[in-house]
Design a protein that fits this description.
By secondary structure, the chain is α+β, with helices and mostly antiparallel strands. The protein contains 8 helices and 20 strands. The protein folds into 2 domains: 280 residues, Zn peptidases (Aminopeptidase, 3-Layer(aba) Sandwich), CATH 3.40.630.10; 71 residues, RNA polymerase II/Efflux pump adaptor protein, barrel-sandwich hybrid domain (OB fold (Dihydrolipoamide Acetyltransferase, E2P), Beta Barrel), CATH 2.40.50. Bound molecules: zinc ion (ZN). Zinc ion binds next to loops.
Length: 370
């Protein structure tokens, strides 16, 4: 079940590895790839995949797996060990200062020339060709750094999957998803099972995040080879499993069950499939998220709970400077779902504090935070 993937040693005596857990039979049925902890200081998904592993072992023993499941519960051993003054900082690599969930390779660019001559009229054959080529091209890259080798390892494990779920969490948040705009229908299904309060869609999020690598490859190849049938063969999503402190057996067990129901829906598990639960929200553009920043430093007192639908003009938070007495109220200028806010109750000037998902696009360019 376990496969070990050694990373390039960035220094001497510092060899790290990624472990992947494999269920079902390779090449048989649909394949789903799930990873947690790419931002290594985001822990809810790690516990969910722990519980999911137990359930998958049971299902596999009972002969009920009809597809292939790959779990990487600890996707980022580099960030996991990055403690500064006793505090884990797992979002950025300390050496390069790069965000672990940015700068993934342009996979279309990687395979475009190699597949050009072999693409034909059979969509399924084209998908198989592209996936084979992705795997061999990724395996042929010689990484120069540990971070590059981590990115290559994760991409190689995921590049031939039909479904890629990158499980993160926000600061304080309701469950929400990032999906490609062309995959809103599939996003709705996942959202139904996992109880998402926002489905944020974009054609380009900006930043080349992990999930985006597996959708942009298909859209870019579709554009490059307009004469050949190339479907959006991979559904990829970032799943934000609530906030940083929402780690409990109760939540994780329920999330694992929800993911199993989703896997059943996708045809990876035989037996009865629970119907897609009623949606809490409809997809909204990522460009429609209103982010409010602190106008100055101060203590943060929130005035609205996350998970609430707010009207335009709703006060979301106060930022209080106890020295001057200045109190600034952050007010939503749009109607939408107040789905996330930062957990810290003291802010520097200009820090992002509140996130409301509205229906109309407001923003342009890179729409992911640092
Ligand atoms: Zn994250």
């Amino acid at each position: 079940m376990y496969q070990q993937h050694s990373l390039l040693a960035q220094s001497l005596g510092a060899q790290r590895e990624v472990l992947s857990l494999h269920f079902g039979t390779r090449g048989q049925g649909p394949k789903i790839y799930l990873q947690a902890g790419l931002h290594a200081d985001e822990h809810p998904g790690m516990l969910v995949l722990h519980h999911l592993k137990s359930r998958l072992l049971t299902l596999e023993a009972a002969g009920r797996l009809t597809g292939e499941v790959v779990l990487v519960p600890i996707a980022n051993p580099i960030g996991l060990g990055n403690y500064v003054c006793g505090r884990q900082l797992g979002r950025f690599e300390s050496s390069s200062r790069e965000n672990f969930n940015r700068h993934y390779l342009d996979l279309a660019e990687l395979v475009r020339e190699q597949v050009a001559a072999e693409l034909g009229d059979d969509a399924a054959a084209n998908v198989a060709l592209i996936r084979r080529t992705l795997t061999t091209r990724l395996q042929a890259i010689v990484p120069r750094t540990e971070l590059e080798s981590l990115r290559l390892t994760l991409m190689t494990l995921a590049c031939d999957a039909d479904y890629v779920l990158d499980v993160h969490c926000d600061s304080e948040a309701m469950v929400h998803l990032y999906v490609h705009s062309e995959q809103q229908a599939q996003g709705r299904v996942l959202a139904g099972y996992i109880g998402a309060h926002a489905i944020l869609h974009a054609t380009v999020q900006g930043g080349n995040s992990f999930d985006e690598a597996f959708t942009s490859v298909w859209t870019a190849l579709q554009q490059a080879f307009a004469q050949q049938p190339i479907p959006m063969a991979t559904f990829a999503a970032t799943v934000e499993l609530r906030g940083i402190n929402d780690v409990s057996h109760e939540l994780a067990l329920a999330d694992a069950e929800a993911l199993l129901a989703y896997l059943g829906h996708l045809g990876l598990i035989s037996g009865a499939v629970p119907a897609v639960p009623e949606l809490v929200c409809e997809p909204t553009p990522l460009a429609g998220v209103e982010v409010l920043n602190a106008p100055h430093a101060g203590v943060v007192a929130y005035r609205a709970p996350i998970g609430s639908w707010v009207a335009a003009g709703t006060a979301l938070a106060d930022v209080i400077d106890p020295l001057s007495g200045q109190v600034s109220t952050l007010t939503s200028s749009i109607a939408g779902m107040f789905y996330a806010r930062v957990i810290e109750r003291f802010t520097e000037a200009n820090t992002e504090l509140t996130f409301v998902a509205g229906r109309e696009p407001l923003r342009q360019g890179c729409m992911l935070g640092a």
